[in-house]
Each structure stands twice: as structure tokens, then as C-alpha cells.
Amino acid sequence: MSPVVVLVAPPGSGKSTIAALLAERLGVPHRDTDTDIEAGAGKPISDIFVDDGEPHFRALERAAIVAALEGSEVLSLGGGAILDPDTRADLAGHNVVFLDVSLGEAAKRVGLGVARPLLLGNVRTQLRNLMEARRPLYAEVAKLTVQTDERTPDEIAAEIVEHLG
Ligand SMILES: Nc1ncnc2c1ncn2[C@@H]1O[C@H](COP(=O)(O)OP(=O)(O)O)[C@@H](O)[C@H]1O
Ligand SMILES: O=C(O)C1=C[C@@H](OP(=O)(O)O)[C@@H](O)[C@H](O)C1
Ligand SMILES: [Mg+2]
């Protein structure tokens, strides 16, 4: 088995939102590795970062991805999933879509909450650094890139469904 489609991209691009919509349209379940990690750890990602540190979160994330790639859902990953070279290699055989987003739009969408611990402090600066460093990695794993600025989640989901045939 293999996921119907796997969404990768920076925080605020809309991975979790678009994956849920896609799943609804395609009549298959939605799976989000961040949700799986939180369920397994019994606490939110922000607490995992504070209590156990980022390396521990990345280890949980890697395990969640290995398990999810065995499934057949619409899959949304966390923004940093592609930092792991083994994950990038594993994604090679999958239907991976990169949801592209500008810095300004991503910053607007994530807001100032504590749910994304890597963005704490100056959200815009953190996001810019992270997007610059990761852009080549998203592009490397993606079979399709979809622009999300000034488009509704419904429009984006429709474009992806069209490409899936
Ligand atoms: N195309 C879009 N236009 C406007 N807002 C969006 C769009 N896609 C997602 N959002 C909003 O942006 C925020 C982040 O979306 P989310 O799906 O959590 O992103 P990710 O999982 O990539 O971090 C949510 O509040 C969501 O409703
Ligand atoms: O970019 C990252 O490294 C992260 C993105 C988050 O997911 P979203 O991209 O869904 O916000 C979440 O996995 C964690 O806070 C780390
Ligand atoms: Mg998400």
C-alpha cells in the first residue's frame, strides 16, 4: 500500500488543511503525522519540544513517517519532515506534492501561536530562514508543485485532484 498523495511544504502552507479537503473529495481517510506523533506521545508537539527536545521529536517524526508510508491515506507531513535524508529517499517512490507559499502569506497564516515551537520569537525571521534552507529539499522530493498564495483551499485541492487523474 501507498498513500494516495503526500503533502510537503513549510509551516503555514496549508498541508493539514488541504490534505483533509483532498481526503474528503477522494473519499479516503486523512492522516497527518503530527497528529500521530501527538497521539503516541500523549501531548502536543509544543510540549514534546520543551520536555524532550527537537532531536527526540525528529525521531518520533521519522517513525511516524515510516508507518504512514505503509498506509493508503491522504498524508500530510510536518514542515521539517524532509530534513531527514532517509525520509527524502523513502518519498522517492510516492506521489509527493509541494504546496508552495510566499513568506508573507505563510507568516500571516501561522500567526503568533505557540503550536509551532520552531517559529517562536520573530516568526517572520524564523520562517524565512527555514524556508530558504528547505526550499531545495521540498523541490527535490516533489513530483508536483502547487502555488497556494491568493488561492482558497478548495481551489488548491481541486487542482491536485485534477493532477491525480
Ligand atoms: N489557501 C489558504 N488560504 C488561506 N488560509 C489558508 C490556506 N490554507 C491554509 N490556510 C490556513 O492557514 C493556517 C495553517 O494551515 P495548516 O493546514 O495548519 O498548514 P500546515 O499544516 O502546512 O502548517 C490555518 O489556519 C488554515 O486555515
Ligand atoms: O517545520 C517544522 O520543522 C515543523 C512543522 C510543524 O508542522 P506544520 O508544518 O504542519 O506546521 C511540526 O511538525 C513541528 O512544529 C515542526
Ligand atoms: Mg500541519
- Bound ligands: adenosine-5'-diphosphate, shikimate-3-phosphate, magnesium ion
The CATH class is identified as Alpha Beta
CATH evolutionary superfamily: P-loop containing nucleotide triphosphate hydrolases
The gross shape turns out to be globular
How many strands appear in the DSSP assignment? 5
Strand order of the largest sheet: 2-3-1-4-5
Q: How many DSSP helices? A: 8
User: Mean pLDDT, rounded to whole units?
Assistant: 96
In N-to-C order, the SSE pattern is: EHEHHHEHEHHEH
Q: Examine the secondary-structure arrangement and name the CATH architecture.
A: 3-Layer(aba) Sandwich
> Any idea how many domains?
1
- Rg over C-alpha atoms, rounded to the nearest angstrom: 15 Å
Distance between the termini: 18 Å
Q: Helix amount, in percent?
A: 40-55%
The main β sheet shows up as: 5 strands, parallel
CATH-derived topology: Rossmann fold
Structure, described:
Its EC number is 2.7.1.71. Mg(2+) binds at residue 16. Pfam families: SKI. InterPro entries: P-loop_NTPase, Shikimate/glucono_kinase, Shikimate_kinase/TSH1, Shikimate_kinase_CS. This protein has a 5-stranded parallel beta sheet, sandwiched between helices. The radius of gyration is 15 Å and the shape is globular. The chain starts with a strand and ends with a helix. It has one domain (5-164): Rossmann fold (3-Layer(aba) Sandwich), CATH 3.40.50.300. By secondary structure, the protein is of the alpha/beta class. It has helices at residues 15-26, 33-41, 45-52, 54-68, 85-91, 103-110, 123-141, 153-164, and strands spanning 5-8, 30-32, 74-76, 96-100, 144-147. The longest helix is centred in the C-terminal third of the chain and has 19 residues, at 123-141. The structure holds adenosine-5'-diphosphate, shikimate-3-phosphate and magnesium ion. Adenosine-5'-diphosphate (ADP) is lined by residues 9, 11-17, 76, 109, 148, 151-153, 156.
